[in-house]
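Researcher: Batch entry, complex prediction.
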Amino acid sequence: MDRILIRGGNRLSGRLPISGAKNAALTLMPCALLTEEPVTLRNLPRLADVDSFGHLLNQLGCSTRIEGARPEDFGRVMTIRAGKLTATEAPYDIVRKMRASILVLGPLIGRAGEATVSLPGGCAIGNRPIDLHLKALEAIGAKLEMAAGYVKATAPGGRLSGGKYTFPIVSVGATENVVMAAVLAKGGSRIENAAREPEIVDLCNLLVQMGARISGIGTETLEIEGVDRLHGATYRVMPDRIEAGSYACAAAITGGSLELVGVKLSDMHATTDALIAAGVTLEERGDNLLVSASGPLQPLTLSTAPYPGFATDMQAQFMAMLCLAQGASVLTETIFENRYMHVPELARMGANIEVHGRTAVVRGVERLTGAPVMATDLRASMSLIIAGLVADGETQVSRVYHLDRGYERLEEKLSAVGADIERVGDG
Ligand code: UD1
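Model: Structure tokens for the complex:
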């Protein structure tokens, strides 16, 4: 299995391109199931999760065509066509590897009137049930049956009725599923306490371009008027706000200066506010963001929250950065119950972090030292990369497949801005 080797200590400097957003891609791709016409997605990141999602769509009967695949290009263009669906099931083998596969549930039931998906089971960052996905779909007319680890959802008469649902807690994936199902319902739907993440706005914008009727986009109340059919569209995936934030933390911890190329700043205020509070200098240059840090970093108190709050997907990277701040930071994780698995790995590199339940106290240290460390999930892996960039000596990050799920050609992007980083195979 591949590992990433980093010899720390280099200041990052230069221009670093930001890719299309993984989490947007994974909800835009299943929209193609909603129409027999082609849906073309531009700026789709080259990631293992995007490939896996493409394979799942192929298994359901979609054709996928990729263009713009010159090796030097970041991003691709994919045209997905679901002329005729040949299956309506997301099997266990795929769902267990990629939880986002459950996002075919909504569009399949919307288009075909039925869908079967495997229950996802546990995952590295905690027990992540899909009860809210199911309750929301039931509220707009789906009938559910559970058997042998699968849930089968059907729309009586072949079409969902529409209805009203208020989420008890904010869920990104469940909001996406119910919206994708509701756009083809017979009647209207009203979704309250919906997630407001920019990726949901991206999803709604694509659906509207395909002919859906959605109002309240970007707010916590979405009103959807079902239509009889949707048509194809061409759509550009939004920039990855989490990738941008991750590289901003990398620039800051190395005392470097990076121009992040192609970001959407209005989607990442919580991250930029936290960077500024830590003493990082930010300068907006059109669609680019210049991130530079010279003096010592200041400690922060941060609590993760649904958008527009501080993203749980940024917690691990900020924790790595704050390991070198001048003082004690307090981070609280409110979204997932087991999202501190990077803490023992960072401790092996000399970090001083104490976890008390959902809160972590990070006391700044003078320096980190390189060590062999193990990635446990996608964002945790990135926190180890960030720490490795500044640590004395060599850091070896194993289980690199986590990073390949969500960071497009990470070592290439980082070495182009001065990092001493390489991927090595086991052989
Ligand atoms: C999405 C993102 C993930 C991000 C998360 C929170 C994708 C592919 N993944 O994950 O990167 O960290 O949003 O911003 O977009 N919950 C339930 N029942 C459900 C669904 C969720 O209890 O049916 C709970 C979860 O366990 C969690 C919370 O709700 O505690 C929020 O999870 P959710 O917003 O659904 O996360 P995902 O959509 O899985």
